[in-house]
Amino acid sequence: MNSIFPRHRLQQQVMASLGASPVTALLGPRQSGKTWLARTLRVPPENYFDLEDDVSLMRLESGPQSVLDRLTGTVVIDEIQRRPHLFTALRVLADRPEPRARFLILGSASPALLKEASESLAGRISFIDMAGFHLDELPPEELEPGLERLWWAGGYPRSFLQADRQLSHRWRLDYLRSLAERDLRELAESRLTSDQLRRLLLLVAHHHGQAWNDSAVASTLGISHKTVQRHMELLKAAFIVREMPPYFANVSKRLRKASRYYYRDSGLLHALLGLRDLLSVMSHPVHGASWEGFCIEQVIRGFELEPSSCFCYGVQSGTEMDMVVETSRGLVGFEFKAGPVPARTRSMLESIQDIGLRQVFVIHPGERRFDLGEKIEAVPIRQLATLRGEVQ
């Protein structure tokens, strides 16, 4: 396995944004590669500010606007959530008739950071989300082993690229521990203890891909349902979980009204459940739901879909569709089957009829692409990119 993969698409997005906008915000979870990507831009040392570094902090401590105003070219400010007052200086500099510098700010997304950036730099800032490795970033010669590793180890570079499975697992456990004991508290005020946060993370893992009930989780943790809601919003903002809200349609059947939550990184899910390798994942009851969440992330990120256009669908009688995407040409459905030879199901047929899906794609880990009936096609995940024109 290579020591690092070039992330060409993200690099191109950042370069294009720097050329078009005074300020570009590259946001994502800790350890997802934001700093590495910024370093590939080869900015001069004096143009790089790491706000976890005392020297950088001292340079900006008195008169940050005057310090930044002297710089030209690309200027990087890493961990900007530690000094939100810098947004005021950036606004002034961005409003100059001919700004001499373009600013790339890196941060672990948080509600406060997004609010401050959106309000202070409205019309002056572009946002780019960055997560761990994606299927599209795997070199062709490493696609087969890389796909399996990406699923069970997740996409965080230090987990995915670690050749030793036990060390990869240990890294993810340490990451989750830091998340509960430090990172979530830095992103927003929380009155939950570290133990309560760890239990919440574990409960999300046990409910991965299932209908979510705030009140039931609150009862288990001994806290209010509003506290659960607030912390789920925090986990979403921190790129840890993804919410799939229910799709509501004007149908005569009783619809399921609960959202589903998924760990965005399948490696974190497996670490929480003690699953150390692919074999343990395959033999665990979470196997199907894990594959489902993994594929959802590949679809949304691979096709750069707006999360607000993606839903789950289900009715009380049992009919359901893992994912429904609103496109300019109508609704597209996705089912994610962990077996290599998926079959057509009654749910697929009823979902097509209920909400007028123009096409259903069944994503599976096998080798063959084949029709399962009218408007239903089985597609190997390795060929996911070929569906871009159908989904966008």
Question: Which key phrases capture this entry?
Answer:
alpha/beta, 2 domains, 392 residues, 6-stranded mixed beta sheet, 13 strands, single chain, Rossmann fold, 5-stranded parallel beta sheet
Strand content: 15-25%
**Low-confidence regions:** none
Radius of gyration: 22 Å
Helix and strand succession?
HEHEHHEHEHEHHHHHHEEHHHEEEHEEEH
The averaged pLDDT comes out at 92
Counted by DSSP, the helix tally is: 17
User: Number of folding domains?
Assistant: 2
Q: Quickly give the structural class.
A: alpha/beta
Distance between the termini: 32 Å
Helix content: 40-55%
Biggest sheet strand order reads 8-9-10-11-13-12
Q: Characterize the main sheet.
A: 6 strands, mixed
Q: What is the 3D form?
A: globular
Number of strands: 13
How would you describe the overall organization of this protein?
There is one protein chain. This protein has helices at 8-20, 34-39, 54-61, 64-69, 86-94, 111-120, 143-153, 157-160, 165-187, 194-206, 214-221, 225-237, 266-272, 278-282, 287-302, 346-355, 388-391; strands at residues 23-27, 48-50, 73-78, 101-107, 125-129, 241-244, 260-263, 310-314, 320-327, 330-336, 359-364, 370-373, 376-380. It has 17 helices and 13 strands. The protein starts with 7 loop residues before the first helix and ends with a helix. The chain is globular, with a radius of gyration of 22 Å. The strands form three sheets. The chain has a six-stranded mixed beta sheet with strand order 8-9-10-11-13-12. It is an alpha/beta fold and 392 residues long. Strand 8 (310-314) and strand 9 form a beta hairpin. It folds into two domains: 8-129, P-loop containing nucleotide triphosphate hydrolases (Rossmann fold, 3-Layer(aba) Sandwich), CATH 3.40.50; 140-391, no CATH class.
